Amino acid sequence: MRQSQLFTKTRKEAPSDEVAKNAQLLIRAGYIHKEMAGVYSFLPLGLRVMNKVIGIIREEMNAIGGQELHLTALQDPRIWEATGRWDDAAVDNWFKTKVKVGGEVGLAFTHEEPITRLATNHIRSYKDLPFSAYQFQTKFRNESRAKSGILRGREFLMKDLYSFSRDQKEHKRFYERVIGAYKKIFARAGIGEQTFVTFASGGSFSKFSHEFQTLSVSGEDTIHICEKCRVAVNDEIIKEQNACPDCGNKNLTQEKAVEVGNVFTLGMRFAQALGLSYLDEKGEKKFVEMGSYGIGPGRLMGVVVELLADEKGIVWPTSIAPFAVHLIVLPSEDAAVGESADALYEKLCKAGVEVLYDDRDLRPGEKFADSDLIGIPTRIVVSEKTHAGGKFEVKDRKSGKVEMLSESNLLSVLKTL
Fold this sequence. Notes:
By secondary structure, the protein is of the alpha+beta class.
């Protein structure tokens, strides 16, 4: 894509009312637009990153047998009343609205109830189990603290996966597979080393649930890490679990972190409330065991920015960067320089390399500053100097390493990205 045709522009300053690092950088670089507190639009660059994140999550959910669907955002109060979660005294972050013909509907903050009711139409026998289904769906939560940029919003995208099993043993096997898939997702997104499986409160259905917490000084959570097992304990349960649940190590390291994913055992709560049952091999009626597993693609995107950005701007991992290459042509009175850059752009596009081509008529310093802010992993510069030498200047955004490569060597390197 030619940057001269990109309608969004970078800006030197973030909005004065934005305090979160992730939002400041993403707004300045033209990835998102703040509509109001806790509500953000994703612009062309931001949507490209979001779709890369979604692609990784989708691949890993499909790999463990998840089936993708799309549920409605508008919710029928009756099914939530059946589980006791419609009343504002039970759930205080609903957005609700009146219907013209009478009654109310809600905007979903999660989807356990609707997917359980849906499953009652399709599960009859033990032969129908197990299965799992997931979606990427907009959620609405009436948060009182919407000050962390895209880490905590009132409207946001979530991947929510739900599992349906015949018994606890079958549920546990799938639960562990999801944990393995989540580890792969965060590794592929570039934050695997800083992300820990964290033991948290399990509610009424199991001793523990599990969160995935990424180390960050801006994090709202406190975790206690067992370096030996690479697991952690959330601060909310440290009094009852003051040692590593895996090895018993009491020498835990306290850190600030951001929750980037979670997995829950739901037991039979929703199945019993909404009548989700099956007949086992003996013809006896049993209720389905369920699990719920969430990741916010936008939150993951924001955590990557918080964790990997430097003093110049965003630093995207190649796996989720909006483009693999930022091609920059510097102003020159020699027409051959621009022609060389145009030719390289065409060759890269034909080779399937995703390129943002800065063909704008700006000073070199402005182009380099924008490039650092936008954070694309590889920068290629075409200038009078490089053109005269028959090579291209190639800079790695993360390490700052600069190489001078011939066109053939450059194309060979880029094919591996």
